[in-house]
Amino acid sequence: MRAAMARNHGSPRKASRKRSRRKPFWRRISPILIMAPLAAITAALAWRGVPPGFSMELGALKLGAPTATATDRERARFTRCAGPVRVTCVVDGDTFWYRGEKIRIADINAPEVSKPGCAREAKLGAQATARLQALLNAGPFTLARDPSSDDRDRYGRLLRDVTRDGESLGDTLRAEGLAERWKGRRGDWC
């Protein structure tokens, strides 16, 4: 005890404090507890091979021709838009909100639902809206800028082509008679 007191200038408390400064066992191994699972996950991902859309040439990873499903990365649960707050919902057959951005499908024109010209347009507009909602909710999709149009329309909406597995959702709506090719103006549905 005297030797400990002499080392700590006569204070027995400093000797006990020195012992308490040692980190507990779990704190000393915590980096291992964090790194081991991360290493296991990384090894499992590496074991599966090169992700789709990439090809190996002479030991270097080069971007190959992407597969359609590899590019479909957008996904959400769409509802019908209602009220002033709109984040991810469908407005009508050619307009929807996604992650707080209002998007107009660039390659189609669908019947209006807000101010239809006649009962037929109102009915087709409701059908087109329901169908677009179903198509968007059917699985991952891709939003791509249409190179032949501006980034935004005069109302500030993003103009985007929407595809799944390389197929245009606008083409699907057109094939079902719920939309027409965009001609630069509203169509006549009456």
Can you give the helix content as a percent range? 25-40%
Number of helices: 6
Sheet having the most strands: 7 strands, mixed
The CATH architecture of the largest domain:
Beta Barrel
Q: What CATH first level of the largest domain would be assigned?
A: Mainly Beta
**Radius of gyration, Cα only, in angstroms?**
30 Å
Total domain units: 2
Instruction: Work out the number of β strands.
Output: 11
Strand % is: 15-25%
Fold-level CATH name of the largest domain: OB fold (Dihydrolipoamide Acetyltransferase, E2P)
* Helix-strand category: alpha+beta
Overall average residue pLDDT? 78
Q: What pattern of helices and strands is seen along the backbone?
A: HHHEEHEEEEEHEEEHE
* Uncertain residue segments: 48-68
Walk me through this protein's architecture.
The chain is an alpha+beta fold. The chain has six helices and eleven strands. The chain folds into two domains: 2-49; 71-181, OB fold (Dihydrolipoamide Acetyltransferase, E2P) (Beta Barrel). It has helices at 2-7, 12-20, 25-47, 68-71, 119-137, 169-175, and strands spanning 54-57, 60-63, 79-80, 89-92, 95-98, 101-105, 108-109, 142-145, 158-164, 167-168, 180-181. Strands 3, 4, 5, 6, 8, 9 and 10 form a seven-stranded mixed beta sheet that branches. It has a two-stranded antiparallel ribbon with strand order 1-2. Strand 9 and strand 10 (167-168) form a beta hairpin. The radius of gyration is 30 Å and the shape is elongated. The N and C termini lie far apart (102 Å).
